[in-house]
Amino acid sequence: MCSSFGLKFSVFDLTTSRAVEIGSPKFHQPTSAPRGFALRPGSGHLALLTRVSGKDIVSIHHPTTRGVQRSWHPETVDAQGLTWTPDGRRLIMWESAAQGHKVLFYTADGHLLNTWSGPSAFEPEEKHFDLGAGVKVCQVSPDGARIAVCDHTRNVCILDTKPATASMRLEHSAAIVPKNTVQIWQEQIGDAQLGSAHTFVKATQSVSAPGRVSGGSVETKPSRTLAVFDASSTLLATALEDWPSTVWVWDILSSELRAVLVFHGSISALTWHPTQRELLSITCEGDGYDGLVFTWDPLSDGPKTIDFAAQLPDAKLFGKSQVSWLNWAGDSAVLLIGDTKHRLMVSMSESDTCGAPWQDAQRSDLTMTTGKDETQLDPTAFAEFDEDLSNLDMSEVDDTFAFKKI
């Protein structure tokens, strides 16, 4: 937890109710704080980026006591984030875009292994490419073999982690031509009273990705650059600031574009399922997108629309909706959608025979959190049980959980 104004970074031990406080975390805002710390896979060591006297400091903290075990000044002027590789062998950092292209690869004890200083120029007009703005987004694949690096151009560089060299560059073009290997889906907004307001049509002709809206009296949020690998590390979904309402899905093994999803609203989040491959959820910003979630996979007939707000009383949202995949052991993928007052579980399965978390709980009387059988109460509990229920107000029973299948 980060305190106000970024004065300290606190780590709470829920078993002992104690906290360890670390001063001067570099990032403390909700949108930037996750880039300033990372837990090492397997061991649980905490890597934290702080800044003191105008210099970046990386510290490695013990997984239990959170005491400092190692710290050093990285070779950065203004580092913008750090992350571990999935095997925990490398700590990756990236420099501010104002300092050019620079991604650094450190060992867990702070030794610099490699430095990537940007792609080599591919075209004559790119001879001064190294003088441009640098890294904007740095995303490691789940298998740790590759890193997607987005800058301020319309390209995404894919690095091989071990040699720290660029293996491919994914070029995003404004005009997209449908092929047998490339499917293009365009969102169509209709009348909600007549059925689904958001449907998708497969394009059969060349499509131009919509650009950023300029001018006007309505203040819009800045566009985001996103790059996310799927669970198999073979697909990469990207969204660029130049085309904020378009999602590009790339096949990393063949270095080819596989799908383009064109929306009317700006893309706010792209999230692949944590374990099931090639299953993507998309959320957008703008009028008419509150409570809407879109899911896509390569075998589907276009993105599917999930209207969370329509399942609520009076179809009214309380605050901003949040979406996440539920990581459970069942076969069907499950989305957890909610606002500040309601929560909804949505099964992606089209068959009623596939299991769902709430079905497992009802069938075996197991809780979804612990798996303990709560039906067999301790005999001592019955000794204190009062059978007189006359003092209880049972005029209205509140159903804590309400599960619906969409």
Describe this structure in words.
The chain is mainly β and 406 residues long. The protein has helices spanning 357-364, 379-383, and strands at 8-13, 18-23, 37-39, 46-52, 55-61, 68-72, 79-84, 91-95, 103-106, 112-116, 137-140, 146-150, 155-160, 165-171, 175-176, 183-189, 198-202, 207-208, 226-229, 235-240, 243-251, 256-262, 266-272, 280-285, 292-296, 304-307, 322-326, 334-338, 343-347. The chain has a six-stranded mixed beta sheet with strand order 17-16-22-21-20-19, with no helix packed on it. It is globular, with a radius of gyration of 24 Å.
Shape: globular
CA radius of gyration is: 24 Å
As a percent range, the share of helical residues equals: under 10%
Give the number of domains.
Answer: 3
Structural class: mainly beta
CATH class of the largest domain: Mainly Beta
**Helix segment count?**
2
Under CATH, the topology of the largest domain can be stated as: Methylamine Dehydrogenase, Chain H
Which percent range describes the beta-strand content?
35-45%
Q: Can you list the strand order of the major beta sheet?
A: 17-16-22-21-20-19
From the N-terminal CA to the C-terminal CA, the straight-line distance is 36 Å
CATH superfamily of the largest domain: YVTN repeat-like/Quinoprotein amine dehydrogenase
The profile of the biggest β sheet is: 6 strands, mixed
pLDDT average, as an integer?
83
CATH architecture of the largest domain: 7 Propeller
GO biological process, one term: microtubule anchoring at mitotic spindle pole body
Protein name: WD40 domain-containing protein
InterPro entries: Centrosome-WD_assoc, WD40/YVTN_repeat-like_dom_sf
